Each structure stands twice: as C-alpha cells, then as structure tokens.
Amino acid sequence: MIELKQVTKTYFRGQGSMQMTVRAVEQVEMTIQAGEFVVITGRSGCGKTTLLNLIAGLAKPDSGKVIFEGMDIWAMKDEEISVLRNRKIGLMFQVPSLMPTLNVMDNVVLPTLFAPKETRRNAYQRGREALDAVGLSGLKEAFPRHLSAGEEKRVVIARAIVNRPPVLLADEPTANLDERTEEEVMALLQKIHAGGTTILLVTHHPGLI
Ligand SMILES: Nc1ncnc2c1ncn2[C@@H]1O[C@H](COP(=O)(O)OP(=O)(O)O)[C@@H](O)[C@H]1O
Ligand SMILES: [Mg+2]
Questions:
Q1: Residue 70 CB neighbour total at 10 angstroms
Q2: Which domains does the chain show, CATH number per domain?
Q3: Is the CB of 58 inside a 6 Å radius of any atom of ligand 1?
C-alpha cells in the first residue's frame, strides 16, 4: 500500500555561519502492506513526525520516493496530492488540531467538505457514525475547550475516519493521556484496524509497543 524508497529529508535552521543542517529522515526504506498495524518508535527528535508528513504528502523529500498504492506521490500535482490525502489518508496530528470555533460535530465533518459530492451529501450521517464509533454521540454540540484530553483525542479520531480512509496515520495519539484513557484510545485504534483500516502509529511509549 505504501512504499518508501531511499527517502531523505533535511531541514535547515538558522542563518549564515549559524546555519545548521538537520537530517530528520535519512535513506528510509519501508513497505507497508494493506491491513498492517505498524508501530514507529524512537526517541524524541529522531524524525517520526517528519516520516509521517512525508507519507501524507505534507513534506517533500529531498530525495527518494514515496509511493502510495503504486503512485509516486511527489510526481503528482499539488491538487492531486490533496485529493489523495482527503480520500485515502486519515491524519491524527501530534499537536492539538481541532478548530476552537466549531463544535464537535462540525469539526468531525470538516474533511467531508473537500470530499466527493456523495460523501458531502451524507456528511452529517457519517459524522454521527464516526462519533458513535468513538463513543461520543452525546457531545456533538460541545466545543473543543469543554472537552477532556481523552475526549479531544476521540474527536480527532472521529474526524480522521469520517471519510473512511484506507489508511490512518496517528502521531503519538496517546501522549499526555492518563493510563486508562490511553488504553481506551488504543482499543479504539485496534477496533478501527479490525474494521480493515491500515494503521501507522507513532509512539515512544514502551507499554503500548
Ligand atoms: N520544520 C522544521 N524545521 C527545522 N527543523 C525541523 C523541522 N521539523 C522538524 N525538525 C527537526 O527535525 C528533527 C526530527 O523532528 P521530528 O520529525 O519532529 O521528530 P520526532 O517526531 O521523532 O520527535 C528534529 O531535530 C527537529 O528539531
Ligand atoms: Mg513527533
């Protein structure tokens, strides 16, 4: 489903003589089969988030290829990458990313705005199903600032699955959660995986690994 071939990503920081080169991802080879549950682990700063951004088409590699279902994504046009991401990839970012001015339901259905007509038409139905799946049917009208950390994560999961993408990329989805909530989030991801979704999970939590 996803193939990385000799993928390298370098960042440059600072200016002039103070400029530093950060080789965030170096020569990564990776193959992910449809239906796998892959865990990526490693110390903070080792390049995990960069790797997910490369796979999601959010960061462009300096060299190498990212191939999604046989397509070299960096040979595609920008709009085509956006369409691919919207249809095929569910994203859970490491940083909080709910829109504070939208309620839970509107946050969840946001990705359907950019989806094909058929999906847009059923947006709220899909939103309800996604919120049911994460056990948050009762919080449709709530605003992000009123949610606990665990509830927020579950809304983020619901938003990531609302377009029913074949792949879910989850960047440290259990960071800053207590142990019990962490287990709930993991159980949810396992349920989504059991439903046929390929999952790529980044964590540095030894217990989860
Ligand atoms: N946009 C950026 N500009 C400059 N350096 C960056 C940028 N993003 C990440 N880095 C650096 O790249 C390295 C890998 O970062 P990251 O992929 O976020 O690691 P991880 O997710 O494993 O903690 C780190 O040294 C980080 O400081
Ligand atoms: Mg990270």
A1: 7
A2: 2-202 (3.40.50.300)
A3: no
